Amino acid sequence: IDIKTLRGVTNGITTIDPGYKNTGSCESAITFLNGEEGVLRYRGYAIEELAEKADFLEVAYLLIFGELPSKDRLAKFHSDIKAQSHVDEDVKKILDGFPKSAHPMGVLSSLTSALVAFNPTSVNVDNDEDMYKAIVKILAKFPVLIAWTYRKRAGLPLDYGDDSLGYVDNFLKMMFKKPNGEYASDKKVVDALDKLLILHADHEQNCSTSTVRIVGSSHAGLFASLSAGINALWGPLHGGANQAVIEMLEAIKEDGGDTHKFMNKAKDKEDPFRLMGFGHRVYKNFDPRAKIIKKSADDVLDSLGIEDPVLDIAKGLEKEALEDSYFVDRKLYPNVDFYSGIIYRALGIPTEMFTPMFALGRLPGWIAQWREMRLRKEPIGRPRQVYIGETLRSFTPIEKR
Ligand code: ACO
């Protein structure tokens, strides 16, 4: 069915589907996901193969433009990104206005939105060339915004990276460069982060991606749509889960490490506590990303020579959940966020920065979905409702209420 036919079909009939559990909002050629079988593919390539063989920028290109880039194309893409990596100095003044305690996701969405003011030509993009420019700009500036957000919290000088480095290595340098400029690039760390970012790069019509598409459908512009997506990702039921997972694992450790006690809390319907990092709207078998990340967590801790007791608690919880009828019956398995925080921690990334890391990984997916929505000339997103409020009432003056 083409989009025009779909438009007509909605006239006259309203279906209700809270949480859109069975409602497709669009047709898409970007990401294939089979939740029953635990299959995830970007543009037809298995996630397992991409995580092993590709790098993050290559996957970003694939997601956005639909094909793996040739060596020359990738080199040009990278050099176009490098050429746009400066952020207007006045953005630092905006950043300065935030208290140090501000959550980085709030800061990041505000700064991304502020970029619109500094790059007004990136708003009205309706041809491929202007789109390419806007895409390259945000891929270049977003890691700078994340690094600045982190460095401001840490009381470190705000600076730029090093154009001679790869995209991920450069990001790590912007984050962790010492005030005297010292930074030791570590291949193991770069590879681990590269893999994590690839695993987060797209996940079809999740909460933040749907937000990006729906905001973009009003032609609000790429940066504004992304800013909205960042806010959607912030919530603990979505991207905020990675921070919540590590906080939960630490709370279990502090409490003496009794995983069973917390399993029972999660099962108690009177208790709002949920086992963070478990369950998924679409995966009802296992999350293929979680499998790769679990192995990666083991490898990273091993190769960096770190012992993290929280990893044992995580493994203990997973083992118990796999044998517990509550979790088995509801098909609740560890999701992508369950082990990612352990890796971020090993890489030296502080807990409040976990969700911005997710945003960095998801950026190419959001861009790809926004671009697809614009190229397909999709109509403005505007769901209907089933009204359940009062029928007509007559107005009572305030003195008589
Ligand atoms: N702990 C305990 N019980 C759970 C959990 C959990 N983590 N997740 C779901 N359940 C239970 C629900 O209470 C419900 O039980 P019931 O049928 O007895 O009422 C049942 O499983 C189905 O759960 P829903 O909330 O209806 O499932 P939904 O698809 O709406 O939610 C979600 C999916 C939000 C991911 C949920 O599983 C959850 O809150 N998980 C914890 C947060 C989390 O890890 N989020 C990250 C998701 S991945 C991502 O965004 C990157």
Sequence of strands across the biggest β-sheet: 1-2-3
- Given as residue ranges, the uncertain stretches (5+ residues, pLDDT < 50) are none
- What is the count of β-strands? 3
Mean pLDDT: 92
Shape: globular
Helix content: 55-70%
Gap between N and C termini: 53 Å
Sheet with the most strands, sense and barrel status: 3 strands, antiparallel
- Strand proportion, as a percent range, falls in under 5%
Order of helices and strands: HEEEHHHHHHHHHHHHHHHHH
Which structural class matches the secondary elements? mainly alpha
Radius of gyration: 22 Å
The number of helical segments is 18
Name the hetero compounds present.
acetyl coenzyme *A
Secondary structure: elements and pairs:
Elements: H1 3-9, E1 31-34, E2 39-42, E3 45-46, H2 47-53, H3 56-65, H4 71-83, H5 90-96, H6 104-118, H7 128-154, H8 167-176, H9 187-200, H10 207-216, H11 222-234, H12 241-254, H13 259-267, H14 288-304, H15 309-322, H16 325-329, H17 336-346, H18 354-375
Antiparallel strand pairs: 1-2, 2-3
Helix pairs in contact: 2-9, 3-18, 4-7, 6-7, 6-11, 7-8, 7-18, 9-14, 9-17, 9-18, 10-11, 10-18, 11-18, 12-15, 12-17, 14-17
